[in-house]
Amino acid sequence: MSDNTTDTTETPAQKAKPRWGRILAWIALFALLIVVMLVLLQKQQGPVAIGQKAPTFTLTTFDGQEIDPTDMAGKVVLVNFWASWCKPCEQEAADLESVWRFYQPRGDVLFLGIAWTDTEKASLEYIDKFDITYPNGPDLGTSISQSYRTTGVPETYVIDKNGNLAALKLSPFTSQAEIKAAIDPLLGP
Amino acid sequence: MINKKFLFSIGLTLLYGLFLASVVSAQQPTPSDDQVNAIAKQLYCPVCENIPLDVCPTTACAQWRELIRQKLSEGWTEQQIKDYFVQQYGDRVLGTPPAKGINWLVYLVPPIAILAGAFILFRAIRAWRRPIQGENLASTPDDNPADTDPAQDEYIHRMEEEVRKR
Question: Which domain holds residue B19?
Fold first, then answer.
């Protein structure tokens, strides 16, 4: 009788074992759900919002020039994401170049073209085709587009002299006047 | 004399021709579509997610396939080409993510989940079997609950005392 009694009764240490296992399993499951939630939240975030600090980056242009945040400081910066295979990008290419040539003598406006998921050969052909003279470079590792959370091309971000995002356009500009309208309010008298 | 010079120049031209031919034959032949697609099917362009590069119909993917062909003709290995694409366009071009950082979850979670599921199933089956064994034992006529439960033993003992008194 006494043997049966000892068999069926568990010591507290024996009882604690499966509890720890369960706690660890729940913690692991909870951590996994948090990771999944964070990834989903990050993916569902739209582009950088107007008024927010624009992400900083260093662009290595196709001709090897490095443009870093110090080159952009104190300037109105227009960042245009494009690709040679993108037909809507061609609609705005000539207008962007014309507006760049209009502002370039001022010295306080900088245009940057970022070729997104493009091959270098095709990008250079595109630059040549539209006679683009403002700095252009590849988005190496798609790191710049990821920091801006772009959703495709063309996308254009206009950054004010304080480094804040002042305007964004998630489709091609339709006229030079539209591009100037995004830049002019950010320039001093 | 003229004949000798003429023969010498012909010989020199032939030697130069042979040299050129050997240089040309040393270059890689134009890679076939199969060779290109063998690498392309392991890559995904960010423009058309979830479609491997070998079957993606967009211009962007066609350009990427041409780039693979160009790199193959320059003698690049498969790994070198994949590394180049990762450097240019990021990790997400790869069909299988590299085992680093948060990507480890992709490799660790499924086997851990399978093992945990097997363990839970094993415990559940064991728990289901226990009451059946208990019921069988309880239904045997020789079994006396007082043998196993001291509280019941005491209770039965008191009942027997009461019956005897009457």
Answer: 1-28
B58, B66, B89: residue with CB nearest A141: B89
Residues of chain A with C-beta less than 8 angstroms from the C-beta of B45: 117
pLDDT bucket at A5, cuts 50 / 70 / 90:
very low
Hey, are the CB atoms on A142 and B105 less than 8 Å from each other?
Answer: no
Min Cα separation A70/chain B (Å): 24
Q: Are residues A36 and A90 in the same domain?
A: no
DSSP B47-106: SSTTSBTTT--SHHHHHHHHHHHHHHHTT--HHHHHHHHHHHH-GGGBSS--SSGGGHHH
Same domain, B115 and B138: yes
Distance CA A84, CA B56 (A): 17
Residues A63 and A98 in one domain: yes
User: Does some domain include residue A162?
Assistant: yes
Q: Which residues of A touch B115 (CB under 8 A)?
A: none
Tell me whether residue A171 is in a domain: yes
ipTM of the complex: 0.76
Structural tokens at position B42: 């392991």
* Model confidence pLDDT, tens digit, residues A8-51: 455 555 555 568 888 888 898 898 899 888 888 877 777 788 99
Residues A115 and A174 in one domain: yes
